[in-house]
Specification:
84 residues; 5% strand
């Protein structure tokens, strides 16, 4: 059986349940067990916490964008009602 490259625990194959391979860990990615893989992802996420999807969230900007969208939507609804 393969071993986790970070902690050395034995990894079981993906389709083998824990009951058939006691004392093993689920495979994560890149040779790591699921526990090490999840820990690394949490650590990477914490480092990026203030930034999501490539930009920093700004409440004022979001409120302004929402107000612009609502204004445009109201205008479109009024235009559709006048055309009918």
């Amino acid at each position: 059986m393969k071993q986790c490259v970070q902690c050395g625990h034995q990894l079981r194959p993906a389709k083998v349940p824990l009951t058939k391979a006691p004392g093993t860990r689920q495979h994560g990615a890149n040779g790591s067990c699921k526990s090490c893989y999840d820990r690394d992802r949490r650590a990477a996420g914490a480092a990026r916490e203030p930034e999501m999807f490539g930009y920093v969230f700004d409440e004022r900007q979001a409120a302004s964008a929402l107000e612009a969208w609502l204004s445009d939507r109201r205008r479109r609804i009024a235009t559709q009602g006048a055309a009918a």
